[in-house]
Design brief:
Radius of gyration: 21 Å
Strand content: 5-15%
Number of helices: 12
Shape: globular
CATH superfamily of the largest domain: NAD(P)-binding Rossmann-like Domain
Helix content: 25-40%
CATH architecture of the largest domain: 3-Layer(aba) Sandwich
Strand order of the largest sheet: 8-7-6-9-10-11-12
Largest sheet: 7 strands, parallel
Bound molecules: nicotinamide-adenine-dinucleotide
CATH topology of the largest domain: Rossmann fold
Number of strands: 12
Order of helices and strands: EHEEHEHEHHEHEHEHEHEHEHEH
CATH class of the largest domain: Alpha Beta
Structural class: alpha/beta
């Protein structure tokens, strides 16, 4: 089986090369994204492998199907960028890596929260300039505060456990409450109550038509004044215009993002010598109480190794026409 690996990043290449070694699968690495223009590169391949910002819509899938591609292997958990109906129509099997390291993402969400609350981003720069003033660096104890968690699946539940370890009260919303978390002291409440009571809100639900712009003007208006919002899930969960308004009015106390709704053409690229045309993202970077990382929550050695190994084992099962639990 020949596999074209789109969007190969420098950081994952060695892990992927290692996993493919001895697998009997032939891997071709490309750093370009999959889209309508680049799909033709898959000619002669049985499978393609893609990541979060590849465009896997109906048009691209039909092109891949026409070229004889039979399998799409996602190197991520979320599949909101894939038209599964189109894949079914074209008889292309889609597999993903459902859980490579929930700790990586949950721990990054905690890192963002701690950085934002204790102003580490400002302190880091100040100290480097010999400015040891503490003005504007006051945070709050997380111990005893209410932390709202929206989505308590694989990642959300690890986040809940960490926050319980901090001594925070953890409020959660998920259509499928997790009994283990309830036994560990997490309280499931309605979404409105999360907004009303939480000092910190962290998003860990998938992006679906129902959750698109879950955090909009109305949701922010319901939040406690000064609440901190953390999003390590998917950018489309948050209406960027609404958070900008919330930050400008001061009602939203701070924002930390690892994902952004218009990230597809920006994240994972070095654009430091270019003018970035996205005014909303640039506006966000001007707030002193906003921290943005470029979709790096998953980026630990353990996660990269698991992603590479699971991708190869998914493809091996498909090549052998065996059932694969990770098929969508
Ligand atoms: P998961 O499927 O294990 O859990 C998602 C949970 O959200 C489930 O319990 C589900 O019931 C719940 N949910 C669904 N709809 C909801 C709603 N409307 N409101 C509240 N909860 C809802 O997924 P996961 O592995 O925990 O990942 C969560 C998300 O994190 C993924 O969808 C992905 O988008 C994102 N993610 C981001 C990164 C990153 O690097 N930033 C890495 C991996 C995953």
């Amino acid at each position: 089986m020949k596999v074209l690996i789109y969007s190969t990043r420098k950081d994952e290449r060695a892990f992927l090369a290692d996993a493919f070694k001895g697998s009997g699968l032939l891997a071709q690495f490309e750093d370009i994204h999959l889209n309508a223009r680049t799909a033709a590169l898959a000619e002669g391949c049985d499978a393609v492998s893609v990541f979060v910002n590849d465009q896997v819509d109906a048009q691209v899938i039909e092109t891949l199907g026409g070229l004889g591609v039979r399998f799409i292997a996602l190197r991520c958990a979320g599949y909101n960028n894939v038209d599964l109906d189109a894949a079914k129509r074209c008889s292309i099997a889609v597999v993903r890596v459902p859980a490579y390291s929930p700790y990586a993402v949950a721990e990054h969400a905690v890192a963002l929260l701690l950085g934002l609350n204790r102003h580490i981003h400002k302190a880091y720069n100040r100290v480097r300039e010999g400015n040891f003033s503490l003005d504007g660096l006051v945070g709050f104890d997380l111990h005893g505060k209410s932390v709202g968690v929206i989505g308590t699946g694989t990642i959300g539940q690890v986040f809940c456990s960490i926050m319980r370890g901090f001594g925070s009260k953890v409020l959660a919303f998920d259509p499928y409450p997790n009994q283990k978390l309830i036994d560990a002291g997490v309280s499931y409440v309605e979404l409105d109550e999360i907004y009303r009571r939480s000092d910190v809100i962290s998003l860990h639900c998938p992006l679906t038509p129902q959750t698109h712009h879950l955090v909009d003007d109305a949701a922010i208006a319901k939040m406690k004044p000064g609440a901190l919002l953390i999003n390590t899930s998917r950018g489309g969960l948050v209406d960027t215009q609404s958070v900008i308004k919330g930050l400008k009015s001061g009602h939203l106390g701070g924002l930390a993002l690892d994902v952004y709704e218009e990230e597809a053409d920006l994240f994972f690229e070095d654009l430091s010598d270019q003018v970035i045309a996205d005014d909303d993202l640039m506006r966000l970077t001007t707030f002193p109480n906003v921290i943005i990382t470029g979709h790096q929550a998953f980026l630990t050695r353990e996660a990269l190794q698991n992603i590479a190994q699971t991708t190869v084992s998914n493809l091996t099962l498909l090549a052998q026409a065996q059932p694969c639990d990770n098929q969508l």
